[in-house]
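Chain A, query sequence.
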Amino acid sequence: MTSRERVLEAFAHREPDRVPFWVGASPEFRAIVRDSLNLAGDEELSRTIGDDFRRVGAVYAGPPALSPSSCFLHPKATSRTPFGVERHGYGYGQPLAHPLSRAVTLDEIEGYSWPDPDWMDVSGIRAEALRWNGEYAVLGGDWSPFFHDGIDLFGMERFMTLMIDAPEVVDAALDRIMDYYHEVSRRIFEAARGTIDIFFIGNDFGTQTGPVVSVPMFRRFFLPRLARLVDLGHAFGLKVMLHCCGGFAPLIPGMIEAGLDGLQSLQPDARGMEPEGLKRAFGGRIVLNGCIDTHHWLIRGTPDLVRRKVREVIETMRPGGGFIASPSHDYLLPETSVANFLAMVETVRDFGAYPGGVT
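Chain A, predicted structure.
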């Protein structure tokens, strides 16, 4: 069974030959592991650890002054969002300013300098996806973090209060954000038709102790936008999977209603995200991808602890399919123990097989 076949069996809630394996890691951590194993490059690493997924993406080709990685106005900036918010810090960083923090009218929203989908070059995506020869499950589409973009533009407190004080302003901004992401992904899927398997998007709606917003507010402002992305993916015959951190279990029923096919991350140490409970409540209705704790086991644990915990997760989540083994974050950090990481890889390989699964 190829990696692609294995993953699609899991999405069909059937038992493949073994539990599929997903590894998201920062470039810094991947370099550390490559050096530790004396591997030549990222693809050799992915094959060595048995990652069943590959990713493709569009390339920025817009105005140099608005580049996501250069020409910053703020001296501390390290990245820029499509919506012009400069950020600072490790990885994606944190916003340095909130350009719509004082906006109170629809005219101010409409007058903002919104990005143009023409800035994203999709011409190379099909060739990039085809080079995997159908062996791996290919992830594509724009990341589309519309919730975070709203926070970036208005500021967290302002964004939350506007949902109550001026919901029409929030709606207008979210609609403009979504129009951009929807069109970029539509172009990606048109250009790469038949070569992408999963539309992978990301919005973190959870904290360690529960959702960032209430269930009614989530359903009012964010679920319809999420459903719009789900519908887009399904229109191209793709599965749609959402990366979402934290304790967001109360939001999962709505996500399932919207047609979402999979959830990635699943932090077992966050409230309501215990693997047993997730499997019992949702295992037959949505693919569960994650559950291997990165906060404690992979960073602070020992290889023996990791082996024991990963085996427990697999035994809990494996029955009936619909599970992908993965660290509980899509960006393993450099402080992650290489020995613990390799213990996870070995345990998924050694104990992930389905008795009598499809071969």
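The chain is about 40% helix and 15% strand. The mean pLDDT is 97.
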